[in-house]
Amino acid sequence: MELYTYYRSTSSYRVRIALALKGLDFTAVPINLLVPKGGANRQPEYLAINPQGRVPTLRTDDGELLIQSPAIIEYLEERYPQAPLLSKDLATRAHERAVASIIGCDIHPLHNSSTQNLLKQWGHDEAQVLTWIGHWINQGLAAVEQLIGEKGYCFGDQPGIADTFLIPQLYAAERFKVSLDGYPRIRRVAELAAKHPAFIQAHPAHQPDTPAA
């Protein structure tokens, strides 16, 4: 498998975690989103792979090109059921997917690079953009805090799909200076993930395209 990825992309980060949790090997194909005069994701070569011009894209062992991190993770869950990311209980599965959706649908799109760039084009300065981002991250995390369990990972002793979405979102929260002081359950999950080999392997600091310090 090949994963078209960008080290700091939270969507790519989610898929890297899922692949690592399932013990699946892949080749990272870095796509630099910040190349001057248009990132590599906007070039014809990449648009032929992913018409949306975003990361991640997964090229499967069968040659299929899959886009959008929720769809890719669901594919991996169905194709490689070992180390399941979803509970056997249907109601719990719905809760797990709800947390993933809050992050993937309601928080992340409001602070990704395209949103930030548009806000700046409309005349908002850096402080205003950070205020915007902080508002939406806090609103989403406040809901997640109430939905996840009181021990272990988000929904149990083993990490699952909710954790694959939450941990990258916390990386973004740190980047945008959003405090986690009001979220003790979320902080607990973050502390567990920080010691887990799959989350360590997938972290932006450990990617082939991570800039040298």
UniProtKB/TrEMBL annotation:
One cellular component term from this protein's GO annotations in UniProt: cytoplasm
Organism whose genome encodes this protein: Pseudomonas karstica
Protein family according to the UniProt entry: Belongs to the GST superfamily. Zeta family.
Chain ranges of the GST N-terminal domain: 1-84
Protein name as catalogued: Maleylacetoacetate isomerase
Pfam entry (one): GST_C_2
InterPro entries hit by this protein: Glutathione-S-Trfase_C-like, Glutathione-S-Trfase_C_sf, Glutathione_S-Trfase, Glutathione_S-Trfase_N, GST_Zeta, GST_Zeta_C, GST_Zeta_N, Thioredoxin-like_sf
Domain of life: Bacteria
